[in-house]
Design a protein that fits this description.
The complex is a heterodimer of chains A (234) and B (269). With 234 residues, chain A is mostly helical. Chain A folds into three domains: 23-51; 60-145, Helix Hairpins (Orthogonal Bundle), CATH 1.10.287.980; 157-231, Cytochrome c-like domain (Cytochrome Bc1 Complex, Chain D, domain 2). Chain A has helices at 3-18, 23-49, 74-82, 89-105, 107-110, 122-144, 160-168, 192-195, 198-206, 220-231, and strands spanning 21-22, 176-177, 180-181. Chain A has a two-stranded antiparallel sheet. Chain B is mostly helical. Helix content of chain B is 71%, strand content 1%. Classes of the chains: A mainly alpha (234), B mainly alpha (269). At the A-B interface, helix 1, strand 1, helix 2, helix 4 and helix 5 of A face strand 1, helix 5, helix 6, helix 7 and helix 8 of B. Strand 1 of chain A pairs antiparallel with strand 1 of chain B.
Chain lengths: 234, 269
Amino acid sequence: MNSREKEEYLREYQILKNQGKPFFPYAVVKDSAMAVITLGVIIALAIILGSGELQNKADPTTTTYTPRPEWYFFFLFELLRVIKPPSLVILATVGIPTLLLVAVLLLPFYDRNPERRPERRPIATTFGIAVIALMAYLTYLGAHAGAPDQIELKVAPAVRPGLVVANQSGCGACHKFGEAGNAGPGPNLTKVGGRLPRDAIARTLVNPTAPMPSYKALPPKKFNALVDFLASLR
Amino acid sequence: MAIRVPKLPLRGNRHRQPWPLEEQEHNGEVQLRERAAELQAGIVGWVDERTGASGFLRGFLFRKVPKGTNWFYTLGSATMFAFLSQAVTGVFLAMYYDPSPTGAYDSVQHITNDVFLGSLVRGMHRWGATVMVVLIFLHMGRTFFFGAYKYPRELNWVVGVVLLVLTLAMALTGYLLPFDQRSFWATVVAVNINGTAPFIGPYLADFLRSGPEFGATTLTRFYSIHMLLIPVLIAALIGVHIYLVTKLGTTAPPWLKAELPEPLEKERV
């Protein structure tokens, strides 16, 4: 904005302001109504949804717990899941959020277009809508995503029940299955069926190396399904 | 210096005028009322003489808001109101909360199950956070699409973005306080993410954890950041934000054009 445009804006604004109404009581009435609505919504949410179930007391020794943030942080959380390669993780954790924040903070200093109507600033409006849509989409993905250790491999329908058992048993907490699961302390099981015969897998499940727990307590049907699933991974 | 405060009309007088006799009868009472009204004006005047508050209040309350101001313009004050609600419920929660790793979880359960209205107040604090985050984003969206961050309000946009970051920091530090599995592990992840930032990251993470590991003082550190440091910053910046809004005026909707007075040429003809 050059000084002529600045002066033009100030003059125009002064006229609109003089044609306006005093803040008290006209704007105050609307603000108060909105305040009552805000408080009403907060109280209604507190009564209907309660204060939120407490889970178990914090235990720093558990290793299998997969935390989830509040829903309005889902878009950041999902960014972490979308960007997989370890060398790029820093981009998701710090790079993109920081860049976005700096871009937002400095907005008035690089957007120097004097036009204010949204339909006459197509670049800014499109960009704003795009950012909102992207955040909404990532939030949606984050809300519907399972925990990061949920195994999502494509397997034959016959061994599908075994995959469900593997997820229920939390195998992904210590083993990697394709993209999902943690890379340790257990070995990568993506192709375990190619390395070990079916019997060996069953034996390891019953009598594993510490710290892995034994799975001999599983009902035989579930146990066999699990072994079939693992043996099918080649 | 004399301050112009309109004298309050004495209600009794008007009715009693037709009956002068009665007025004489009650003369003592009328005088008392008059004196009470004068005393009121006297107190207002006394305070005003020492603070100059009336000029400020008149400027704040009776400043004009431009034509076309609509409901979108209430989002900012609604965000501030959500913050006030958080502050009030937060004070009550702090009366019962115990910020120690051994006691935090039990004190939160105590608040939820035993304390009178504890469950409601904790619920309001929890959902109030969500409402405040939603409102601040809506307020920001309104400011963006209306082009309200442009000249001469650039600085107020910067203040607003800082307020947004502080609000999200409130959400993050408050998440640890119930000290259950979810809040603990979510915070571990969040702090580790902070730690991956270049240069300052490791120092920031160490500062938040108060050491290289999550320890006994981590919780108290989060607690004091959550209930002292950030709220004071937010309150101060809200003050700056509103001062600038008052000084510069709220924007008119961008599609409104001022009806300029008739051009001079016409008048000459």
